[in-house]
Amino acid sequence: MSTTTWAWLVLLFPLLGTLVNGLGYKQLGRTNGGAGAIGTASIGLAFVCALGALFSLQGHSAEHRELTSSLWDYAVTNGDVDAKLSILVDPLSVYMMLVVTGISTLIHLYSVSYMRGDRGYARYFAYLNFFVFSMLVLVLGGNFLMLIVGWAFVGAASYLLISYWYRRGTATQAGIKAFVINVVGDVGLVLGTFFVLRHSGTLDFLGTFRAVHGGAFAGHHGALVAGCLLILVGAFAKSAQIPLHTWLPDAMEGPTPVSSLIHAATMVTAGVYLIARLHPLFEAAPAAADTAAVIGCVTLLIAGTIAITQTDIKRVIAYSTMSQIGYMIMAVGAGGYVAGLFHLMTHAFFKALLFMAAGSIIGAMAGAQSLDKMSGLRRSMPFTFGCFVVGGLALSGVPPFSGFFSKDEILAFVGHRGGWFVALYVVGYVGAFLTAVYTWRMIFRAFWGEPCAEARELEHGHLAHAEVPTNPANGEQEDTDVGFPGPEHTIAEWALPMKVAMGLLAIGATVAGLVQIPNVDHVITSFLEPTFADSKYVHDEAGNGMVYFGMALGTVLALLGIALAHRIWVAQPGSAAAWRARFKPAYTLFVNKWFFDEAIDLLVVRPFAAFGTFSRRTFERVVVEGTLVDGTTSVVRAGSSAVRAIQTGFLRYYAALLLLGGAGVLLYFLISAS
Amino acid sequence: MSTIVFFVAAIGAIAGAIGVVALRNPFYSVLALVGHLLSLAALFLLLRAEFVAAAQVVVYAGAVMVLYLFVVSYIGGGATQLTPGGAPLRAVAGGAVLALFAELAIAVLGSGLKAIDSDGAPYVSGFGTPAQIGEALLTKFLFPFEVASLLLLVAAVGAVVLARRRAGTTLGDEPEDATRWITPRSLFTGTMAEAVGGPHRAQTQPEPVEELRS
Amino acid sequence: MSIAWYLVVSALIFCIGAGGVLVRRNPLVILLCLELMLNAANLALIGFSRMHGNSDGQIFALIVMVVAACEVTVGLGLIVAIFRRRLPIDVDELRELQG
Domains of chain A: which residue ranges? Predict the structure, then answer.
């Protein structure tokens, strides 16, 4: 079977899963109804087909590893429109396919247990399959059209899944917030595409790259930069970079597997994929690429500072995601595409693992998510604890876990770029230190210390239940009907699917880095080479000295961070409050998330709301309704009431009118005859 | 000589016309019309239309006006007033009439037809005689002739139908009142004024008519 | 007298009849004024017939008389029917359709 056929199959199976689960929700959604099995199986099959595509692709020679296939021509004209339903199968898209389908299969498996008992079980799997389908359309798309379609679908799927428990007001508000910000990004992406299309003459990726290399933008550099900057707006919105990041923490309202899949491993990496895919454009417009690198760097720092102050466990991990994506964006903005994508893969492993483990803890805490309530879960939840430790070590960048290799490769590349990139290099290591601090703060607070009430219950083999279900975000009471979380919850120790998924991810988080050890092997680089062969940074590699220095520095900073976290939260338990008091202004800034929400509310939301109110009260009511509509009707009404006066019923009036009319006609004839 | 006859007949016709319009009593109006018709017959004679003049006197003044007289006697035309509030209408009527007359006069007197100023075509013997009329009626105008007879039939039938009494009711049997014939009005058939709620409010529905005696 | 005189007289009678239709309230009198107008038309027709010298106008006038007779018949029948129903014989009062 040809490579592109494998790729089409990869697209087909999740779509089938969505349709089957969506249409048969009544039957399949019941307990043991099979919605979970169908959902997981469809993604599993997609993963198998992705492997098939991989092997098939490697069967081609290195120059012929960029294959396209088109199913349908929407609008193809002689001029410059070639809108087709086409996919591009090359090492980059196969890489992304494998990451997406692989992680998704494990998360589906996890969800089978985690979402048991939820009244919308089939709906959940339908949405999740739809999300995977959209993400695959995004990464497989061979032209801007499919990219934008996948982009939009992914945003829609994200909205559906964030507000999955739709009877919670906080969830629906979060979903709307995410969707609106994503739409802002969509606008940027589409406008950027127009700018590029204007001079490249084709929507196709390969054609556009050929045009760029061939000098189509020689006299239109400004248009290219503008287009790339607008595309970056889209990337930032999707990948939650400053300033379009405010939706990601709120998106934690969705179920934990959703956060794990969408907001850790796949959707938020779409921006990274976008820049990597469009690297010829960005290399021809260095201003845009540098902007991406700077924003990525700023984001990783700011997100790191916020993460050390948050108390909701999921939000800590969310800000961690934002920070790590910042690393990736910085990498691909600076030209280190392989490094950024390598970190994408390892991050997918350990971040998904961390979220899954967090889900297990939330199950143990009967729905509570605040770190203030958790402590001493070490003895009662050994497996979850182990997964958290593995994930935490990988995230902090401790060798030999995967995060160490990928993060240091990024930083080495950025440092090697030289010039003002050294500043980014330094900030990157500051961020690494902060990463270790906030990660181990979370782990120490949740697992060390005196066991909390729920932990003690677990030690006796009994899972805690809340008497009255409440919304963890605002404490409102709710029930367990459809639209709310179901009455059942479980922990990883007791549910085999969750254990299997987390175990596989833990293995991945541990060993995935071994494929790209500097000076030992470079599997990923050589795999991705055909895609990035035309990049000017393809042969840029940091010197050994810088590499080894970076590795040592990274290890030291990670261990220092763990040590500091241990001192504050384990060795001297009360000192956290003292630290907070000592750095009060900084703490206030961090805990309020750098006031971004308030700033956006003031600068964007209020003016728009005022404009809307003005439009409704004044413009709509007075001008449109009053003048145009009412004016027209009142003119008609006045005219008709004037004419109605003729309808009196008096015979003689009618006769008089007849006579007058007759006289008038006669007059006309007289005049025209004379 | 013919000039004098013309003026006498013309003044008679006009006087009759004014009499019809101005006299209060309908009876007198009918009589004025009779006079008018006879003057018109004289004018027809002056125009050498013998048969038509005779027909005018016999048919029009003789039969139609007698019919009128019958009906006026039956109705018993009391003296009715002109519209109490009809001054605007009278003004409009006067104005329209004057305008119409002016236009017609201009049309007649200013027309380019030369023959109007003459006495007409040279007289051919037999013009206007019954023989000529009859011949024309039966040859050239046969179709209108037959249709006219059909029209008369229709009118006769119509008159019978209109004058027919409803089966079972006789005049003077019961104390009739006008409301007896006012059937309940179905929805949405009122005047605009009533619908809008103006001064002419909808009449209250009368009690349903008792079942007719068969 | 030239034909023009007859035509002017005809026009005058027509206008008087039209004014009468507008001004009077009794339907009988209105019908009479209608007769006036028809007669004025007859006069004009006869005048033109004399002008042309053929009898077409006179035939036309005869048919007009027939039509006038039929119309009077039906009109008077209507008025009698109205009178029978004890409705006022006044066109200003008879301005609504019923049922």
Answer: 3-373+384-591, 597-673
